[in-house]
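User: Okay, second chain of the day. Same drill as before: sequence in, structure tokens out.
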Amino acid sequence: MTESASQSPPSSGAPATRPSPLRSVGVQVTLGLVLGLALGMLLAREGAPSAFTTSLLAVLDVIGTAWINAVRMTVIPLVVPLLIVGVAGGGDLQLTGRVGARAFGWMLAMLVACAIMSLLVAPTWFESLALDPAATARLRETARIEVPPADALSLRTWVLSLIPINPIKAAADGTLLPVVLFTLLYAFALGRVSEGPRTAQLAFFRGMADTMLVVVRWMLALGGLGIFALATVLGHKLGASVLGAIAFYVMVLVVLHLVATAACYVLIALSRRVPLRDFARALLPSQAVGMGTRSSLAALPAMVKGATDVLRLPGTATGFVLPLTASVFKLTSAVYWVVGALFVGALYGIELSTGSLALVAASSVVLSFSTPGIPSGGMLLQVPLYTSIGLPIEGIGILIALDTLPDMFKTLLNVTADMAVAVLTAEKH
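Assistant: Same drill. Structure tokens below.
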């Protein structure tokens, strides 16, 4: 009797036992996110945190931070071998170039579409906004922003940062884009060396990539607990902060991000490249990780796992396009730049002209690929723009302070868009 035969169900007609949905990583991390946020917001209702609450949050903060550090430590060791194998191991460097060109084409098209949507929808919603003068005055008083030196936000600094003097240090610092560009250079060069050295190196990097995927699966197996811990601390921090003068701003931002996220699913359904159900299933763990950590970079290992195990995308997609999009593609910029400018204008009683809003929307597309590698870099990149259209740069400090809840949905959109671009640009196999 063969092994497959010995494992076949009995002929008595008894129904096969289905695995419990709770064993799914996607279900576990989603439950962890929802339950953690609910518990955190419940604890936030205490007027003054009790000793038990303080101790509990401290413990959960350690657990959550340790888990996210464990996930982040897999990013560089996973991305580097995947890129090298995806580019040099494909046997056709021109194919990789075509895939990269298509990826940038889709990124640009999606950015333009989101910018146009925000430009058409958001101003109409803000016409109905009525702010309490006392509340807005208190909110303006909280405006604090530390503007970095002008050179830190310049195009020159950004371009030079892409060429690391020490790629090992860049990897240690977690600056993914310079590492990706160096690895691409290495991979293209490896594709042109003789077969012997190339085969030996590709075998090593394939083994490294396979090993790191096993490590990623181990980390995601603990995802339910890690996300629960992070989400509880985040929910406590949110508390009632979504109420009052900022509720309208948060609502508009969240709704527009959800609309853009849904549009990614529609795009995949229309393309018919992969079944929509499989796309959603492959994305769920990385979406939950992204929302819990508010980092699309932290969600990259889960994205690669979903694209590899569920969607069966080729190496050019999992090893090239996904690391590239996670590094440079921030679809959220086309949404929150316009909404943020409208909100700051409303807070300070400044009415923005159609031309000014169009400039904001265009800048969100052009500058989204050049986010500097500094805290809140995407926000601070708008400092020169605010100066040019007459908005106080202190307003950016308010947006940064209010970014906790919107950032969850920004990351949700970015993760979904990254996977969508990988699917849309993948060569059919």
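Confidence is low (pLDDT under 50) at residues 1-17.

User: Thanks, on to the next one.
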